[in-house]
Amino acid sequence: MNLIDRTRALLDEAMAAYRGTGHEARLREVRRRIDEPLRVAVAGRIKSGKSTLLNALVGERLAPTDAGECTRIVTWYEDGHTYRVTAEPAGGGAPRQLRFNREDGSIEIDLDGLAPEQLDRLVVTWPSQELRTRTLIDTPGIGSLSESVSQRSWQLLATEDEETPADAVVYLMRHVHRNDLEFLRAFHDTEVSAPNPINAIGVLSRADEIGAGRLDFMASARRIAGRTSSDPDVRRVVQTVVPVAGLLAETAATLTEAEVDQLRPIAALPVPVADALLLSADRFAASNPDVELAEPDREALLARFGLLGLRIAVILLRTKVASNATELARELTARSGIGQLRELLGSLFYERRDVLKSRSALLALDALAHSHPVPSGDAVATAVEELISWAHPFRELRVLSAVRAGWVDGRPEVVADLERVIGGGGTAAHLRLQLSPDAGAGELSTAAAAALARWQRRAEHPLTTRELAVAARVAIRSCEGMLANLDARQD
Q1: Exposure string (b/e) for 292-325, b if CB count within 10 Å is 16 or more?
Q2: In whole angstroms, how far apart are CA 256 and each of 151, 312, 326?
Q3: pLDDT tens, 352-385?
Q4: Considering the entire predicted model, what is its pTM?
Q5: What is the CA radius of gyration of the chain?
Q6: How far apart are CA 142 and CA 127, in angstroms?
Q7: CA separation (Å) from 254 to 41, 249, 314?
Q8: CATH 3.40.50.300 is held by the domain 3-245+338-350
Q9: How far is the C-alpha of 404 from the C-alpha of 188, rounded, in Å?
Q10: Do residues 27 and 377 touch, judged by C-beta distance below 8 A?
Q11: Domain limits of the chain?
């Protein structure tokens, strides 16, 4: 029986043990959650671009992204058969369906006289291919001027008395702030991984601003993200840090042909004239005889592209690299960094869905067993502790956490190899073995066998430190698992 099935069986036993108590409904909700899409929270400090990034990931302008603190209420975006917005009152109470409109891209919700403080969350149900495998949670900004607004994210993701509603978090930072590290430390549990960065990715947001407006901004942003990722304090709380130009990614995902038509006359201007026009936002927004665009249109373009995005789009159109909305969107997407983030979400979160789902459920079950024990629940509590202690995916998480915290010593290339083999860069066999995605079964088996022999030698070597020897035995089990899975595929 695999990990997710064992977790389901334990939840079924727990529901029987707690039948007739007030906790049965909570366990049913946890049991139902296992089969739902992965819950990924988008968090960060105020003005870090959370809503913009969420829109880019969904591929639609759903979350509001104006200059104010847009996200004052925790808002869930999930797939469904119909378009609906539901408000769930704080402290319980019947959910209320709310009116909304979408005249200017993002959804505008009528709270119907309700104050944000009266609501626990909003649930936006939206038919979307991107939301079928994940539910995205938009959270209020950390460090908000309103303490009650900022506290909502802490209560959602860094609660200490019960399980967090999110399975994983994408945390946006413009630079590493002390509050960022405090929040991420609080998000990680201590029972499964002590603590573990496995369910968190850092995003160096607004990467275009980091590059000081240069067209090669992403190169500078990647260097900064690399240095941030290697910071020991950061490695303890997130798997990695990647740069993303969120506005560029959102605009690329939602670009229209009408907007490209507005850009074409600018691209047709002589290069010195166009460069002078795009020298500053004020100059572009001001009335200009060279551009027959109304002031609201110019302001709309600035809001959608940003000044750097406009420069890039104009160059791409002028040089014929792109000639329509589809081609321009593809080029802007490639320059935004969103592709790398999507790949990381896939390899680090979505491929690890069952582990993250089991982790969330077992944490909930463990918390309940300790806070509200029942005589018939002792066997369940013991089984939960055993599963958390001995299930191999959780052992991989603990070793990965130890590696990231610097508790496993060894040559850098050995530690990097260990991190890959136990799934630090993704759980797929080709990622663990550092092979191409199209590697055949034979090549994978050969590499897995070589890795197995390599880690067996390290585990048995008399000069191997105790910590590395323990980690090596976990790596051996990971290699054996890969070989078993590859053999099963070839049968």
Answers
A1: ebeeeebebbbebbbbbbbbbbbbbbbeeebeeb
A2: 38, 16, 9
A3: 889 889 988 888 888 888 888 888 878 888 988 8
A4: 0.81
A5: 25
A6: 29
A7: 22, 9, 17
A8: yes
A9: 14
A10: no
A11: 3-245+338-350, 249-336, 408-490
In this structure, which amino acid lies at residue 436?
Answer: S
Residues 6+ apart with CB under 8 A from 60: 126, 128, 253, 254
Residues 133 and 38 sit within 8 Å (Cβ to Cβ): yes
Q: What is the pLDDT of residues 54-94, one digit of tens each?
A: 999 999 988 876 544 446 788 999 999 999 999 999 877 88
324: Cβ contacts below 8 Å, ≥ 6 apart: 257, 260
Q: How far apart are CA 420 and CA 394, in angstroms?
A: 16
d(C-alpha 96, C-alpha 84), whole Å: 11
- Whole-number pLDDT of residue 104: 64
DSSP 410: S
What's the CA angle centered on 446, arms 440 and 448, to 5 degrees? 100
Beta bridge partners of 172: 44, 203
Question: Strand 200-204 to strand 168-173: parallel, antiparallel, or no bridges (unpaired)?
Answer: parallel
